[in-house]
Write a structure and sequence with these properties.
The chain is α/β, with parallel strands linked by helices. It has a single domain, classed as Vaccinia Virus protein VP39 (Rossmann fold). 33% of the residues lie in helices and 22% in strands. Strand 1, helix 5 and strand 2 form a beta-alpha-beta unit.
């Protein structure tokens, strides 16, 4: 029963929460216009990647990240897709999304990237620990830091994907494998073979970790490696989520954008912002809503109101 509770999306109405927050003086600093300081404006995207690397290394052991088993119900397309469907998990972390996908559908092939080679190794260990050969064979991790580079060209081409997989079987170097942007692959793209790409992209609590100004570039990159008709499945922090309301005024680094003491950042999305970002990149909107969940802290009995944004976007055929 506890696991099933995760599948509900309307434990409360977001508009009621909004009215409550916007009329509470203690939350007034979240609503104020933001004026950047010189120290904030000088932050480089690379510093965000470094902060997330340290974060993942620090939390790579134990059960800080729980498996996201609810995703197959939130996104049933992943459970019913055709044989050899390809999924790109952007910002895979330690594999909390990957393993449920591989277990839940034997037809799925998962490519997964992150900005940390260390955490990719942790994701590999997580998958290897399943001791299921078919799962290991369908998992293909690679290094990619979108703050510094684009996706490798082979993601957008079926033939290049085959070349990558063959090279991966002959090498354990994740960093080398991820950078197969050689002249040969370039010529293959120029010759017109790149009609492929991936069938699905999952962007799960990843976009909010990027600076707002980088989000359009990242979404366009996702658009470029998705097959025509392919789906991007989105889930991230929503406006007035409990974690947003806990941030103090000095943690603001932008409007609805905050930085934790460890240097990692988080943006909290309203539906209009998400819609503008994805439509601006060329996607068509299929679903977009707030997911509003109540959970109870077992130690103190306090009710916590979580808000996430759930979205499905399609690359036009």
């Amino acid at each position: 029963m506890e696991e099933e509770a995760e599948y509900f999306s309307k434990d409360f109405e977001w508009e009621e929460l909004r009215a409550e927050v916007e009329n509470d003086p203690s939350f007034a600093h979240h609503l104020l216009p933001f004026e950047p300081t010189s120290s904030i404006s000088s932050l480089q995207p690379q510093s965000d990647s470094d902060a997330w690397r340290r974060f993942h290394i620090r939390h790579s052991a134990g059960k800080f990240f729980k498996e996201r088993r609810y995703l197959l119900k939130e996104f049933p397309e992943l459970a019913s897709c055709k044989e050899n469907s390809t999924v790109l998990e952007v910002g895979c972390g330690n594999g909390s999304t990957i393993l449920p996908l591989l277990r839940g559908n034997e037809n799925i092939i998962v490519y997964a990237c992150d900005c940390s080679t260390e955490i990719i190794e942790r994701a590999k260990e997580t998958v290897d620990a399943s001791n299921i050969v078919s799962i290991k064979q369908r998992f293909h991790p690679f290094y990619c830091d979108l703050s510094a580079s684009k996706f490798p060209t082979w993601l957008a081409c079926n033939q290049c994907q085959d070349m990558y997989l063959q090279t991966q079987r002959n090498s354990s170097d994740i960093t080398v494998n991820s950078r197969m942007d050689s002249s040969d692959l370039y010529l293959m793209r120029e010759s017109g073979c790149c009609k492929g790409g991936v069938d699905f992209i999952t962007l799960i609590f990843t976009l909010s970790a990027l600076p707002l100004q980088m989000m359009p570039v990242t979404i366009k990159e996702c658009f470029s490696v998705l097959k025509p008709g392919g789906l991007l499945l989105f889930r991230d922090y929503g406006l007035y989520d409990m974690t947003m309301l806990r941030f103090e005024i000095e943690k603001r680094v932008g409007f609805r954008e905050y930085m934790r003491s460890d240097g990692t950042r988080s943006y909290f999305f309203c539906l209009d912002t998400v819609r503008d970002l994805f439509i601006g990149a060329g996607f068509a909107e299929l679903e977009l809503e707030y997911c509003c969940i109540k959970s109870v802290n077992r130690r103190n009995g306090k009710v916590m109101r979580r808000v996430w944004v759930h979205g499905k976007f399609q690359k036009p055929v």
